[in-house]
Amino acid sequence: MSDRVEYWWVTWHSDVQPAEVVFRGGIPFHVRLIGSADVISATDIDLMERLPLAPAPVIREKTVEAPAESDRSIKLLWLIGFIVITLILWFSGNLFDAIK
What we know:
Layout (H helix, E strand, L loop, with lengths): L2 E10 L2 E10 L2 E7 L5 E3 L4 E5 L18 H31 L1
């Protein structure tokens, strides 16, 4: 059987405190009071009310994705276009003279 951990308000020695309750097979097994390292048997406490779940983090880490194949092909196309335009500018005078 797997253990499930939930947070509850519990009564222990007539004090109401928040606690981490471990359930085994749906039955409370042991309790750790918040702010204490002591583990208490679940038979010594009374469960009062379940605490709400902790809120989800608002800020999430950004994942770095590898560049897509289309990004690489676009960069290669720009490089080839730059080289072709450079060659045309270098030899445009000679081509113009040859066409005349």
